[in-house]
Give the backbone structure.
Amino acid sequence: MAPMSIDAVVVGAGPNGLTAAARIARAGYRVVVYEGADTIGGNTRTRELMVPGVVHDLGATVVPFAAASPAFAALGLDLPYRHSQFALAHPLDGGRAVVIDRQLGATAEMLGADASRYRRLIAPIVRHFDAFADSTLAPAIRQARHPLVAARFGPLALLPGTMFAGLFGTEEAKAVIVGLASHATVPADRPLTAGVGLTLLVAAHAVGWPMIEGGTQVLAEQLGAIVRAEGGEIIVDHEVRSLDELPAARVTLLDVTPRQLATIAPGASGAFRRWKYGPGVCKVDYVLSGPVPWTAEACRGAATVHLGGTAHEILDSEREVARGRVHPRPYTIVVQPQLADPTRGRPDAIPLWTYCHVPNGADVDASSAIEAQLDRFAPGWRDLVVARQVLTAAASEATNPNLVGGDISGGLMSIRQMLFGARPGRSPYATNIDGVYLCSSSTPPGAGAHGMSGWYAAGSALRVLR
């Protein structure tokens, strides 16, 4: 049973919900967390899927924003980060590949004619990375705390990724930047996508693109341990269908998306029902009997590999998704976990993590398209496949209700939604219901395993509790 006297209830034990609960519990208040699944973690869960002893991250796997998170630093998390030789490899036809090395100078040299421009644009932001992270992993109202960083980064961040890529002349630089910008899940010719690409790029040099030894579930377990150590309670396997069924509490924080809020809280503003979701993903996990035989040698040293070819090809793929279709050669994100964390499997049974973007809610098995891209850049890889599991965009929502239509970002990346959330105001976390706050990735600063949405929502709730 939940304690009789509760200060805060948190619904959803993803990284944001757990971060919110941990911050409030650390402040000395009684917290109860409800989670519908049988384990905590949300999109940071890890499980054996196909072969005993081989573990797969169900959602987030490469976590640069966790390493950069001011919230996790403030909570004192001690995560066992592990890095591959390179942060990222982006192969092109002909056995070539662009590599993002943790060393900025090494990356610049690989870009040839674009080396000096790369240094001029990226190095100053890397030097001020702490202020940069505090600014970008925050709601818009806080970003003025770092005016110099905002002055340098802000104008570029608002641009389309294609315009950011247009600052460079080589095919290699353009391809890698459009690939980075396409993590926004919308075509890179739309506003704000440059900010996504630049943030990922700067993080690669400042903190790397690490994985967590043993799986991303370790992040959730450390957050959960803080909640429990501070006297909080976490109740799993308990789906909340209505706020009315929750115990009385002074504040309630919801790690859910806006439409879910509107479902469990009928008094919620119509703005939450009008929230728009972005493309979904089709995720395909494999177990291989050996390393992927990439044509480009550099891909054998990078845990993360972007498959999509040139900037034009990637943009064409993402535009097709925006039109509601699956491209036959999709932009595909591949992760080779064993290159950073060998504990995920064995030399003869290693995990491979992949996904591509598809229209929201698509019940489409895009594995053949993903595998065509692997054939293109790693011929012969099929001979290594031991097992395979496909999760369509439509099916993913059943594994995690926050993945509406397979959208892993919590909402469409539009200027209005990304900067102001579902209900613009002084606090993008407050709802029109007194004492009820939204703390999911649908609130600023958005998607990523950083916990900052939960951290700032908890800050709003703490002002009420105090």
